[in-house]
Sequence to fold (959 residues):
Amino acid sequence: MTGFDAASAAVQAALDAGARYADARVMHRRYESMSARNGDIEELTQDESLGLGVRALVGSSWGFHAVPELSDAAAHDAGRRAARIAAASARVPGPPIDLVPAEPTVASWASACEVDPLGVALSDKGDLLVGATATMAAHGADLAEGLYQVWDTTKWFVSSEGHRIDQHIRECGGGISATSIGDGETQRRSYPSYRGQYGTTGWELVTSLDLAAHAARIAEESRALLTAPQCPAGETDLILGGEQLALQIHESVGHAIELDRILGWEAAFAGTSWLDLAQLGSLRYGSELMNVVIDPTIPGALGSFGFDDEGSPAARRDAVREGRWVGVLAGRDSAAVAGLDHGGSVRADGWARLPMVRMTNVGLEPGPHTLDEIVAATDDGVLMDLNRSWSIDDKRLNFQFGCEVGWEIKNGRRGRMLRNPTYTGIGPLFWRSMDMLSSETVAWGTPNCGKGQPGQTGHTGHPAAPARFRNVRVGVRA
Amino acid sequence: MSHDAERHPLDLAGRVVDLVHRLGGPGAEAEVVVTRSELALTRFANSFVHQNVAESGVGVRLRLHADGRTAAGGGSVVTPDGLAALVERTLTAARLCPPDPAWPGLAPPVSVPAAPVWDEATAFAEPAERAERVRAFVAAVGGLEAAGYCRTAYRSAAFANSAGHSARGSTAEAAMDGIARAGGADGVARLCADRLADLDGAALGLRAAAKARAAVDPVELPPGRYEVVLEPAAVADLLHNLALWGFNGKRFAERQSFAEPGVVQFDPAVTLVDDPLGGSGLPFDAEGAGRRALTLVDAGTTVAVTHDRRSGAQAGAGSTGHAAPGAATFGPTPGNLRLTGPAGVAAAGDPGATRAAGAGPPVGPEPPVGPVLDAETAALVAGMDRGLLVSDLWYTRVLDTKRLVITGLTRNGVWLVEGGVPVRAVRDFRFTESYPRALGPGAVLGIGRRPVRQPDRVDGVWWDAPALRLAAWNFTGGASG
Fold:
């Protein structure tokens, strides 16, 4: 059967079994990753996955079932079982569920890709990682690691409302890291970030990173960090590099504006949100420099697509405008519960997983400054960059981040390197303290966003640029 | 399912090994794991089932070594064409890889331990059975909001390699994890079991509700070092991070781990055993090695780390049965740690008098009153002059791997204890702590006698965690920052 045929059969079976709405996704994914260490290939893996997941709404209760094959019998069985699971859900019923209206769409979409990542010779990709890690090892790194990953996904989506959408999405990226091991501690420097930079794009992204050109520098910096002074403890002005700010956005804005969290649907695991829907449109989230946009239409960014996994077309929407909270990430059912008029942010990480509210590209619009201007305007502070650890509470308020490297800022100049830089704060207070924002925006890709039970790994994008925050607590340690 | 999809896992694994020989020549070495699974999870929030999923899965993992080069592949496509494509692309990948001089070779044909008995009723539980436990949990919280999940998992797996070694086994597991919510305060109950029948939704709901009611109106305390009693859910996080970062044979070889075999690194009260067959588990790892109980810490002395064939060969120690897909990069890690204290040294509670901490109170005519709901935790708390009772830890991340410095937050209830009695609820803290230091010599003041099996995020991984009293825990921030 074709992907559309199998999805249609599953939807029909669910309807025949009592569902009032059903949708199904067939997904075929090829995944390739290679890692290298100290000049040798460490692991090369190529996976291929194909299957079908069907979602059924019986009354106001959902059920989902997935199977790893596309035969007519398997598709029908999956549809029937999804409806039966939905009926079981009704043993512990909730409030009535509706879906916000969606135009039945018949469409096809593919991400832009200049160089097919799976078409690049493995030997070339291996040479890239072997060369870069060998250089790092030669320049003092105890552990020189390199990694690339490729996802090539084709999806066929059918709903009982008439959707019929196929998409071909190619994603890839990579990076390198150097770790030096001292007496009782380790120090790491990475380029362009720990797991690398990722996008919905072709191998041209990895080529543009020029990993080899940065290998010697990060190895030497990782070793130098072992003897660098500790990041001082106390309150100071904090300048964040764009990569770290991307994760700050991800954790303290992106997750906080997920409507399922706001509604309590993730309370037991991922958590809730400090945001209250009654304050949508009026709450001050941050300073007036803070303009956060939900935008899955950004070409090449990792959270881009043509249609989400409910068939809603990609659309740009404001989340925070001039510091005021104005938008959420939503699905068709959560939007209906909240009285909103759009979904558009529901995705599943594979055929075997239930689509749920996920970040797409959530990022800051550019500011008026440059990093050099921000540094020059800072009398006393710390510049931190590249994430090393991240932790935030279940309401997305109290966070603590560690970075790979800090630099002392004195009298408008970048000074000595600082090791073990950390900073901590409370989300809205932190964002309200942002007083300078650079225009040097990069759409950073995060390929490891965990959420859901069973667990799902989402791919998200975060346009971000360096920014300054006032009076932030830094230097927290054991 | 189609004929090919219905083939027994061992049959499929052998077929892939044959394909490798046919397409790659007699010198090609191959190892294959085929897994069939039935995984289901019923999720609830705001006191109703909002997500309810099931997956029938099949997966093939192939690792092969040809002409001195190694590659791996896998997937869910088990048709004849799909298996042939898997073998061909993995052979192609291997040919293009640089040589792999550290290839440890295949596991020889050796017997693996007998698989523990698995429960068929759990493996193929109906969605209504999971929903019924959710209904009981929701009913037991007595009008509070409830959220959580009930899950069942079944895996049937087979291993075959071109050295003539094969093995097979099946496993079933159930878990339930729920919170009750009372005016912004949450209480948790969490349990993993070999049999769904051993999960009592009502008992877990009563426990969560009692904890939540005891957690209302928390006060904020200043950060600092406090003596603590950690309940099993919190202790599970310690075990998880010690396993991932400390006893991981690859990280040990890279000098990124704190572990130093032969050195007293923990309090004498601490014994840690990885016991994959202590519950329903597969009797072999991804390389076909037998999985057996392995003592990692014996009365405070670190005695072992975990290895697959590669890290074991490099360390001169051999495999400990901890190979897993991806372990070449992330390292072989324990996934079934049990923390115990030596009898008579630091135990607490009367095992004959009550259920273990975290398992839920016995269901009686009166709702239990929290936050202390079992004799083991009560005994530990009673010995504390001033400190904190902590239910759960959340979002823990490593700041430094070598000293295993972790930051994270408390969750699902914290209480100030004075004179051996919880006196009031406390708002959540952020902490930054070295886990080995917190468990170091002289730091462990008491360990509950009976560990409570805590589920991980994936089935097959669990932590046998008792309540634990520690001399100090470094809280570095409060709810206000």
